[in-house]
Amino acid sequence: MFDNVPGDYGFETDLLHWGAYIDPEKTRHPESMPIYLTTVFNAEDLDELVKIRETKSFNYNRTRNPNRSALNDIITKLENGQASLCTTSGMAAISTALLTELKSGDHILTDKTLYGEVFDLFNQILEKFGVSFTIVDITDMDEVRKNTRSNTRIIYTESASNPMTTVCDVEQIAAFAHERGIKVFVDNTFMTPYAFRPLDHGADVVINSLTKFCNGHCDVIAGSITGSADFIDKCLANQWVLGDGLDGMSAYLCQRGLRTLSLRMERAFSNAEKLATALQKNPHVSLVCHPSLPEHPNHEIAFRQFKGRYGAMLSFDIENGTVETLNKFLHALKFVHYAASLGGIRTTVSVPAHSSHRRVPKEMREACGITDSLIRVSVGCEDIQDLVNEFTQALEQAYC
């Protein structure tokens, strides 16, 4: 099958078929995983096609791809699950997981400080198909108990919320949920499996936006779902028809980025703690949200749950912040830039009211602390003194 096509053919046929295939026996054990950009894999005959399906081998890129399968395996190991499924984005992962579990008439209990577009998914898509949801303070178990219904199917939360870095007690929530036959879904994007494994603490499903810290280089959009083998099989069946399977190139880049996760996170976590402390002392800053700070309302939970690691995301509010002040601050930054996404090796900032939460009603945003002047910081791996100086001088210029 892998020999060049024998016979006397026309120029166009030779052009298409000669050198199109390489015998895999001659390319075994490459040190770096090859990138499989092919959309299809050929079968010798119908018998082999049956074997491919039975062994879950590769046939069509939308169903399986070697790079995606490798990334699935890496995420499964890191999150300590039974199986994983990688998708075209974090939102694709969230959507696929929820659509797999929910049906009309079901209810979701969720946290008030979630990533804004998850609320869009609830409002614009799920409610239209008869799935209701209730927003609570997920750190308040009395609120969780009071708002749980007989038809509650999922409690959905984040290991550290976007952008307020709220931290809930996953073990406590899982124990409560499982007594009632409710599943717990945790988005682990901010903490990553390097710092926290929700499945080890009772969660049923863990979701990651691999776009962020797991990839770490701002060159891939991807997501993942990890859970039981049975649940992931159901998600895979839905992925085939939803068409949100991650392409080979993105999967390759993401698995490469993952190899340095522990190195990058150790530096970024340390930088975030020190920057949060410095910002807390700045006279132009009225609030700093980072779980490492003793004043953070969930500091004790974070210390116990994350074993002394607090994440690389923080947010802070500036004193009497106006659009003009925010713009002066952004213009004064020298090497830190505004970015709608997060999780790269370089430090970036955004204003959630104008990006991640721009479609969330103002009263809803402000009720959980997301003011128009709140600034979200994705802390990178720069020299920490350079970072402190960068934010200090930008704040000074914003108020001069």
Summarize this structure briefly.
This protein has 400 residues and is of the alpha/beta class. It has helices spanning 11-17, 46-54, 66-79, 90-101, 116-126, 141-147, 170-179, 192-195, 229-242, 248-258, 261-280, 299-306, 323-332, 362-367, 384-398; strands spanning 83-87, 107-111, 132-136, 152-158, 183-187, 205-208, 223-227, 285-289, 313-318, 337-338, 348-350, 374-378. It folds into 3 domains: 11-54, no CATH class; 66-258, Aspartate Aminotransferase, domain 2 (3-Layer(aba) Sandwich), CATH 3.40.640; 261-398, Aspartate Aminotransferase, domain 1.
Give the N-terminus to C-terminus distance in angstroms. 73 Å
Residue-averaged pLDDT:
94
**Shape-level CATH architecture of the largest domain:** 3-Layer(aba) Sandwich
By CATH reckoning, the class of the largest domain would read Alpha Beta
Return the structural class.
alpha/beta
Q: Low-confidence runs (pLDDT<50, min 5 residues)? A: none
Q: Classify the beta-strand content into a percent band.
A: 5-15%
| Domain module count | 3
Q: What helical percentage do the residues reach?
A: 25-40%
Task: Give helix and strand order, one letter per element, not per position.
Answer: HHHEHEHEHEHEHEEHHHEHEHEEHEH
Can you tell me the CATH superfamily of the largest domain?
A: Type I PLP-dependent aspartate aminotransferase-like (Major domain)
Continuous helix count: 15
Going across the biggest sheet, name each strand in turn: 1-7-6-5-4-2-3
Categorize the overall geometry. globular
Describe the largest sheet: 7 strands, mixed
Count of DSSP strands: 12
Rg estimate, integer Å: 23 Å
CATH topology of the largest domain: Aspartate Aminotransferase, domain 2
